[in-house]
Amino acid sequence: MTDIWNRLKSLRKSQGDARISGLFDADPNRAQAFSTEADGMLFDWSKTMIDAGARDLLLDLAKGANVEARRDAMFAGEKINETEGRAVLHTALRNLQASVTVDGQDVMPEVRRIHDLMAAFANDVRSGAFKGQGGKITDVVNIGIGGSDLGPYMATLAMAPYHDGPRTHFVSNVDGADIADTLKGLDPTTTLVIVASKTFTTIETMTNAKTARDWMAKSVSNPAAQFAALSSAVDKTAAFGIDESRVFGFEDWVGGRYSVWGPIGLSLMLAIGPERFDEFLAGGAAMDAHFRTAPLAENLPVLLALVGVWHHQICGYPTRAVLPYDNRLLRLPAYLQQLEMESNGKRVAMDGSDLTQPSGPVVWGEPGTNGQHAFYQLIHQGTMPVPCEFVLAARGHEPDLAHHHILLAANCLAQSEALMRGRSLDEARALMAAKGLTGAELDRQARHRVFPGNRPSTTLLIQQLTPYTLGQIVALYEHRVFVEGVILGINSFDQWGVELGKELALKVEPLLEGKPSPDHDPSTEHLAQVFRQMRG
Ligand SMILES: O=P(O)(O)OC[C@H]1O[C@H](O)[C@H](O)[C@@H](O)[C@@H]1O
């Protein structure tokens, strides 16, 4: 492995100032050769500095890290999450016909049973067979945070054209503003509250759940009857008073940020109905099948991961931007931030040794075209390249607004072209000369208008954003994160890095209330003191 890493780094060095556009000049077939199609999607990774030599070495890296064996171990239910002693089987939630054993036990009958219970409940809510104390459920509030919020929230926004159920709302932040703003205007007698928490101990979620119960108790005699719970700690849900008929459980082998496929997806299922939800699962399952069977060189998650490794670990670009040209994928970047950074933002390898390569990159983004009018300035002319990952659907959902869609798509393609091509000093000078400038002023103005170009990007092109293609996209990114983690030797399925802050929050709370709380640093003590003064 060390040898392959070194060869990749020297290959990159040897590229010097070579330009991506030069790769196209050298290989007229590059656009096709560095585009990969699978199950109706196209991943174009030609606008990068990965040439045939780099591609082969990157594939060697994947082989050397035993990506295929680790993948098979994951699907087989082996306990690949070694620091928590758990299997990693979110894939089982979307492959309902599969047979999967954990500790020698077939887990699928229970997965199917819960799936069917959820579907029956969703149908009852949607039809009005399950009622609130004031009649048919009109609104659903999902209370959860992290993986118990980001997945269903992202997917529910993405699937807006398919909504034919109750309105859905999401509360995550412990900031009372979140729940106050959400509940304002809702009718407690026709609202269903879903408490989504894998552990059912997360303080933000429990605090919000109690506030929602108090809110409901002012209007209905039995608030708990309008609550449902999604959790892998089903014993704790009873203490909250939620009847077990509305408790949908899952096992600890479903990680929080991988949990949208099962009970945590209930709000999505309520919004679009169980049949559409199953199409979402089918899209994920199709990506699983592709990931398990396609050769590495044609395997979309593997290629996405290799492009990621190339840009971050080899080229040293610290971040990557995810830029969906699809307004309904508004929350995809936030969702991917958790998926990628919580999974691969780690400094030690599975065996506890220091990582020999940088951990995963910072991931960020916004939908296009909005980002163009905000931060693309830096992407085009800042000193640090930002690899961009564009996502685009060929068709929108508004036939009457097809001209909007063409304009949207034109912007997406134009951005990746501009990033690669840039604008030379000569071109900028010609522009300024055409405006009548001359001499030093022409030079000065021209320099501001130079675009260095040679900035890498990839484009994921899908036909249309449907439940099925959304499932494909989410599973694609999940497996990409997995492959990157395997290549880096990381356990992508724990998140110890979130613990310390949670622990300290419990100790800071008394400090803010002026109660004794030892062992804080002077800055924290001072901030708490001023905070108390400001509160009056
Ligand atoms: O679903 P819960 O148990 O409430 O957890 C919610 C979230 O909080 C934790 O701190 C983790 O960082 C996340 O991975 C998790 O998704």
Automatic annotation (TrEMBL):
Catalytic center residues: E342, H373, K502
Associated pathway: Carbohydrate biosynthesis; gluconeogenesis; Carbohydrate degradation; glycolysis; D-glyceraldehyde 3-phosphate and glycerone phosphate from D-glucose: step 2/4
Enzyme Commission designation: 5.3.1.9
CDD domains for this protein: SIS_PGI_1, SIS_PGI_2
Pfam families in UniProt: PGI
UniProt entry tagged with the keyword Cytoplasm: yes
Catalytic activity: alpha-D-glucose 6-phosphate = beta-D-fructose 6-phosphate
Lineage: Bacteria, Pseudomonadati, Pseudomonadota, Alphaproteobacteria, Rhodobacterales
GO CC annotation, single: cytosol
Protein's name in the database: Glucose-6-phosphate isomerase
Keywords assigned: Cytoplasm, Gluconeogenesis, Glycolysis, Isomerase
Record localization: Cytoplasm
Family matches, as InterPro entries: G6P_Isomerase (IPR001672), G6P_Isomerase_C (IPR023096), Phosphoglucose_isomerase_CS (IPR018189), SIS_dom_sf (IPR046348), SIS_PGI_1 (IPR035476), SIS_PGI_2 (IPR035482)
Similarity field: Belongs to the GPI family.
Gene that specifies this protein: pgi
GO molecular function, one term: carbohydrate derivative binding
Function: Catalyzes the reversible isomerization of glucose-6-phosphate to fructose-6-phosphate.
Organism of provenance: Paracoccus amoyensis
Gene3D superfamilies per the UniProt record, alphabetical: 1.10.1390.10, Glucose-6-phosphate isomerase like protein, domain 1
Entry annotated with the keyword Cell inner membrane: no
BP terms from Gene Ontology: gluconeogenesis; glucose 6-phosphate metabolic process; glycolytic process
